[in-house]
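Severity: low
Component: inverse-folding endpoint
Summary: output formatting inconsistent between runs
Steps to reproduce: submit the following structure tokens with default settings.
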């Protein structure tokens, strides 16, 4: 006889999922705001860099340009991780492992039956 969950168990599972989402939402909002601010800063720095590259080069402007390039590189690193985390890949990863493993087992069975 299959194991059936009761509506109460289903509700408990949904409540736990909602509670987890509510806990993670502030962190997600914070990270989103950080990415948004970094994008704005990146655009400002890129405009400033273009202005500096078009003006006559002095030692002071070259130094400022160097600082701008360094800050743009730091922003790129910040933005590369955008809203990515291991938690977002945990379930798809295990789905791939489970179904990939199942595919390998089925392949071996088919090979042994056919060969």
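Observed output (run 2 of 3):
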């Amino acid at each position: 006889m299959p194991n059936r969950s009761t509506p109460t168990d289903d509700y408990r599972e949904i409540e736990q999922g909602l509670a987890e989402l509510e806990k993670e939402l502030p962190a997600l909002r914070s990270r989103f705001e950080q990415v948004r601010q970094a994008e704005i800063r990146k655009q400002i720095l890129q405009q400033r860099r273009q202005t500096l590259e078009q003006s006559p080069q002095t030692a002071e402007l070259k130094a400022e340009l160097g600082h701008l390039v360094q800050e743009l590189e730091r922003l790129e690193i910040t933005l590369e991780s955008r809203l990515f985390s291991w938690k977002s890949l945990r379930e798809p990863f295990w789905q791939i492992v489970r179904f990939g493993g199942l595919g390998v087992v089925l392949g071996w069975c088919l090979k042994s039956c056919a060969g």
